[in-house]
Design a protein that fits this description.
By secondary structure, this protein is α/β, with parallel strands linked by helices. It has two domains: 2-308 and 388-481, 3-Layer(aba) Sandwich (Rossmann fold); 502-625, 2-Layer Sandwich (GMP Synthetase, Chain A, domain 3). 32% of the residues lie in helices and 25% in strands. It has 18 helices and 31 strands. It has a seven-stranded mixed β-sheet, with helices on both faces. It is globular, with a radius of gyration of 24 Å. The structure holds coenzyme A and adenosine monophosphate (AMP). Adenosine monophosphate (AMP) is lined by residues 240, 286, 365-369, 387-392, 415, 477, 479, 491, 494, 500, 505.
């Protein structure tokens, strides 16, 4: 562990020196006054006084320094049978022109723009065009329903919304424009203009006064130059699930973000300029922001934008085809994708049909990497399989096996060790630090390194309350876990109302808010139950109002529809058990943890604070009635 420990210690003992050195890889318009401004904890600011432009660092400087003809982005879309490549010069031209188009619609530094797009190059163009103008983008994942989009429109108050006519999701054709119309109808704030990229797969109707055709806008606009912004100015807002229906608007700054992501490419992922890097995620998630768009481009790599699935587009060999066809060095995806491939091709026969010579590492994140999936991936690929742990809030990994520093021995089930910059500790509920193998709250001692969230958008108080108030001086990750005697972290799962479904972060609290609105429901609880493919799936338990004697199945179907319509299909809400009452403590807290154990078929002990232990038998029976426990069956 010599080299890793050396780098790690330097980052914790002398963070300003460490990150100032890392910041030399970024082109600054004005150098910072202070590497770390810690005058107003827990609000820390990196590189204050500095000025730069993130788009310049991701595109223009590579054109200026000999990478103009290198491919910047490969768009690989099995669902539309398309492969397109853009060099750094071509991509810069498109971004500059689209930025000019946005500028002609009135978008300027500090304005917000919502991007609701499928996985097409134009989504990346739109993000970088905002960055070029110093405008703040907020990308909304395409699997969210209009109601979720409306929440974000009202909070971010975008001047312009950028969208596309539609997408092919697996095999289904999905029209985006009606969803956007519905969201704008639901929202109080109305974007002034809606820019629509018309895809050949489906044509959207445009309203003459508000809607703008993307291609006409891009081709008819003068290219815009990069606008310098402060290092501490926001680059984007990314809404993520919290414990209530109102998502948290995670803010990302410009300076710290560029420095940290650049550093991560070489040190964590072991990639350099010219390498082909593929994050098989979606631009709507943090992995997509950081590792489809910004980090690979900041580093001068070739990034792959894949519009397809691990299976079914057309078969479980899809990932191996992309890797071999484009010479991918690093693939980064979620364990769920591998569980899906393993289910369809348990022996990995598809893998043997492709030449994977250039492929060096598989990185997995987004949910716990279960040891079975780890061993399978390792056996099939015969390459390092790296679990690493991070969150939307941090924007880059908190714990990893840093391939560019030193390859440490793998312990399946652990994302290895804290990444330089992150002082990870395990605390008990009283804030006392715990020793090896003692499970508690996983926290990071402040300050967090560059690139992590400086605050929540328009919600400084919520930022302090959600992350900084439980353990003073520490960022609370809301994950539970422990470290072992070698300092390896083991992240065991969320200790709040957030669940991970197929690597997608969702709030059970938000689902409860929807279910509680059903006219027949008196009370409800939603839990994350174990699922062999998706890691977790939501499971609802409802108590009906007195006098309701409708078929449970009908109510369950209505609830599925409500959650689907209000959150979106990605919530994967399917199962509801009707129970007579919910187990609670004497003070009235619903015992979700105990019910989760029952649903998973794990051993549980009735808590001493329970008001009536007999309820747990009723819950067991009701869950049996809808086929739980599943995972251990
Ligand atoms: N737009 C619209 N709908 C979407 C969508 C999108 N971008 N992404 C998913 N959905 C829909 C799906 O079509 C599905 O709808 P359905 O209920 O009508 O069938 C629903 O949301 C659930 O999607 P998902 O959980 O992805 O299930 P799936 O069965 O379609 O696919 C996997 C399963 C494992 C193949 C898929 O989840 C996967 O590839 N996961 C990788 C994880 C990942 O990329 N995580 C990102 C963080 S790194
Ligand atoms: P998101 O913000 O969507 O990236 O989700 C973050 C959450 O996903 C974390 O708080 C963890 O609960 C979980 N997570 C992400 N990566 C890992 C990992 N490698 N191991 C365990 N949990 C993970």
């Amino acid at each position: 562990m010599g080299r890793y420990l050396d780098v790690y210690r330097k980052s914790i003992e002398a963070p300003e020196e460490f990150w100032a050195k890392a910041a030399e890889s970024i082109d600054w318009v004005r150098k910072w006054d202070k590497v770390l401004d810690d005058s107003d904890p827990p609000f820390y600011r990196w590189f204050s006084g500095g000025e730069l432009n993130t788009c310049y660092n991701a595109l223009d400087r590579h054109v200026a320094r000999g990478r103009a003809d290198q491919v910047a982005l490969i768009y690989d879309s099995p669902v539309t049978n398309t492969i397109q490549k853009f060099t750094y010069r071509e991509f810069t031209d498109r971004v500059a022109r689209f930025a000019g188009g946005l500028r002609s619609l009135g978008v300027k530094k500090g304005d917000t723009v919502i991007i609701y797009m499928p996985m097409i190059p134009e989504a990346v163009v739109a993000m970088l065009a905002c960055a070029r103008l110093g405008a703040v983008h907020s990308v909304v994942f395409g699997g969210f329903a209009p109601n979720e989009l409306a929440l974000r429109i009202d909070h971010a108050e975008p001047k312009v919304l950028v969208t596309a006519s539609g997408a092919i999701e697996g095999k289904k054709l999905l029209e985006y424009k009606p969803l956007v119309e519905k969201a704008i109808e639901l929202s109080r704030h109305k974007p002034e203009r809606v820019v629509v990229f018309q895809r050949p797969i489906v044509k959207a109707a445009l309203s003459a006064d508000r809607d703008v055709d993307w291609m006409a806008l891009e081709s008819g606009s003068e290219p815009a130059d990069c606008v310098p912004v402060k290092a501490t100015d926001p680059l984007y807002i990314l809404y993520t699930s919290g414990t209530t229906g109102m998502p948290k608007g995670v803010v990302r700054d410009n300076g710290g973000h560029a420095v940290a992501l650049f550093w991560s490419m070489e040190n964590i992922y072991d990639v350099r300029a010219g390498d082909v890097y593929w994050a098989a995620s979606d631009v709507g998630w943090v992995v997509g922001h950081s590792y489809i768009v910004y980090a690979p481009l900041l580093r001068g790599c070739t990034t792959v934008l894949y519009e397809g699935k691990p299976i079914g587009t057309p078969d479980p060999g899809a990932f191996w085809r992309v890797i071999s066809q484009h010479g991918v060095k690093v693939l980064f995806t979620a364990p769920t994708a591998f569980r899906a491939i393993k289910k369809e091709d348990p022996e990995g026969t598809f893998c043997q049909n492709y030449d994977l010579t250039d492929f060096k590492y598989l990185f997995l994140a987004g949910e716990r990497l279960d040891p079975d999936t780890y061993h399978w991936a390792r056996r099939i690929l015969k390459r390092p399989v790296i679990d690493h742990w991070w969150q939307t809030e941090t924007g880059w990994p908190i714990a990893a096996n840093c391939m560019g520093i030193e390859q440490l021995p793998v312990k399946p089930g652990s994302p290895t060790v804290p990444v330089p910059g992150y002082d990870v500790r395990i605390l008990d509920p009283n804030g006392k630090e715990l020793g090896p193998h003692e499970e508690g709250s996983v926290v990071v001692k402040l300050p967090l390194p560059p690139g992590t969230l400086p605050t929540l958008y328009k919600a400084n108080e919520r930022f302090v309350e959600a992350y900084m108030s439980v353990f003073k001086g520490y960022y609370m990750t809301s994950d539970g876990g422990y470290k072992d005697e070698d300092g390896y972290a083991f992240i065991m799962g969320r200790i709040d109302d957030v669940i991970n479904v197929a690597g997608h972060r969702l709030s059970t609290g938000a689902m409860e808010e929807i279910i509680a609105k059903h006219p027949d429901v008196a009370e409800c609880a939603v839990l994350g139950a174990e699922d062999t493919l998706k890691g977790q799936i939501p499971l609802g338990l409802i108590v009906l109002k007195a006098g309701v004697n409708r078929e449970a199945g009908d109510i369950a179907t209505e609830l599925v529809k409500m959650v689907r319509e209000q959150i979106g299909p990605i919530a994967c809400y399917k199962d509801t058990a009707v129970v007579k009452r919910l187990p609670k403590t004497r003070s009235g807290k619903i015992l979700r943890g105990t019910m989760r154990k029952i649903a998973d078929g794990s051993e549980y002990r009735a808590p001493s604070t329970i008001d009536d232990p007999a309820i747990l038998d009723e819950i067991t029976e009701a869950l049996k009635g809808i086929g739980y426990p599943k995972a251990h069956a």
